[in-house]
Amino acid sequence: xxxxxxxxxxxLSALTIGPLVLASVALRARFLPTWRGAAxxxxxxxMTVVGLTIxxxxxxxxxxxxxxxxxxxxxxAGSACW
Length: 82
Prior knowledge:
This protein has 3 helices and no strands. It is mainly α.
């Protein structure tokens, strides 16, 4: 594996997961405003993983599961929720 492929994968991961994390933080703050500390971080982490899992499941169901499709759907869904 080359360093450029590794860095490219990190960038795609950031583009996919970053908006989902921001959306999870915003949703947790809106619906669970009294949660602070570790409980809030756990809720945000669970929401991020669930969002990514649901996105992958939907893409797999309609038969277009691929690297770029995951990036686009993750970035779009996260940005829309945020």
